[in-house]
Amino acid sequence: MINIIITNSKNMKAAYSAFITFDYDDKIIKLIRDEPERYFDKEKNEWEIPSTRLLKIISKLNNNSFHIEGEYDSKIGETNYPDDFEFKTAPFQHQIDGLFFGLDNDIFILADEQGLGKTKQVIDIAVAKKITKGYKHCLIICGVNGLKWNWQMEVEKHSNETAYILGTRIRKQSGNIYIGNSEERLNDLNNLPPDYFIITNIQTLRYSKKVPVSSGRKKIKWVFPIAEKIEELCLNGTFGLAAIDEIHKCKNSESQQGKAIMSIQTESRIAMTGTPIMNNPLDIYSSLHWLGLEDHNLYQFKKHFCIYDSFGSGVVGYKNLSQIRELLDKYMLRRLKKDVLDLPDKIHSIEYVEMLPKQKKIYNEVLSAIKDDIDLIRMHPDPLSQLIRLRQATGYTGILSSTIMLSAKLDRMEELVEEYVENGEKVIIFSNWTKITDPAIERLKKYNSATITGKTKNRQEEEKRFMTDQDCKVIIGTIAAMGTGLTLTAGTNVIFLDEPWNRALKDQSEDRAHRIGTTGTVNIITLVTKDSIDERIYELVQSKGEMADLIVDGKVKKGHTGNLLDYLIS
Predict the structure, then answer these.
(1) What is the third-level CATH fold of 105-339?
(2) β-pairing, 66-69 with 555-556?
(3) What values do phi and psi take at 51, rounded to 5?
(4) pTM of this prediction?
(5) What's the fold here for domain 2-75?
């Protein structure tokens, strides 16, 4: 007989748990131990698992008898959402558990590994809390600038709410959307649109200006009007929930930006990070301080948790770490891909980056030259090849300039690789061109990266090094050289710095990581430069409609050149 009681969770990050007792049985123990979340109480000889996992275990033990009791019988294998709440997109089980955890906790750290859908979980929590708590707006602060576009896209995908990026404006001549200056963002805060989700990047909080002082010795003082306005909107309840994405980017709580973050004190707060403690316990300080879980200043925090050298200047070790662990056990929800059982083979995501000002200038110069020569390009036997310089400008300006060597994509690539490697994972990076892979290799040389391009003499040796050498964390290559014929299953993350012209080439490249022998989910990210030809090509490659049919193996079908070129440079 297996006895099961369904009641409030004690050790699980879920609303309700199943507490299971039984006479010793290897089969039952193995099934429970295979669960991503479980806890064994030695004194009671009792197992605890999230109640929503119970039916999966029962279904595999149909020859056993069960006695189930508890007033929460309806929680077995199903969910109990707030009235009127419905998922717009189907959740995975860990995302359902995340929703319950968010409903049970007004402040917490969501630290799921990259690829597990933290954004979707926060969107679902925010929509559910709008119903249960009557929140007027949810504020999203992006620690990485380009993520604001991803958030807007994800809100539309996963909910029936709308999202507004502070400062959004439309150009009169072209009709293109752009993000205005700080004054325009402040104006939006003073006249909030009706959208439930309000999105901005963390740099917005730094906006400052001088104002005259009527008394005292100083004639002027610096004020931070955006941060002050957001603080006001939090205090009066206009913002009921705030989430900071990639909060580990905000380590310096003493900076003006850090102080501005601390002023965002909504009723519900979610700190989002894929690497809660990147290098040392000090990395978690800003998150704990913002959530109100750590009252000491940074100096006091360091004194309590750090061991200094004999000179008192350098940190040589850490102490009292069990206290941080106790806090994280209670207020942090973290799941790893390897522990989540119902994930698909591949998780695809697009991540936008914004060109740096000087990079944007070079891009526009190339675009103008192409438009001036558009008639000649239409007559070229391979017109797409004439757009390569424009595509490369979105990747690395050093290809086109000997003095300006910038790349928003490579900047973001470095951040992503750091996060993956910190989590003990390997990364595969693709580009169409060696002129992009070369600077990528230079930036990632500290990871002992392997390389496979047309210039590589021994591909098998580089393949083996990536697969077997634990110090080799990254492999970088061109789609033409590394996209076929190799097994790179040691990599659980794939980054495309740019798109191939057709979907088949991309599928082949992805499958270097996802082949026979793959034991987990592969996370695939495509970096797309906002307001550039990148967006058009991404739409084209993903499309199954007419535009995709205009290209065969990277060549434009006869008679369609004009339509395709107009589309790509529009």
Answers:
(1) Rossmann fold (3.40.50)
(2) unpaired
(3) -60, -30
(4) 0.81
(5) Translation Initiation Factor Eif1 (3.30.780)
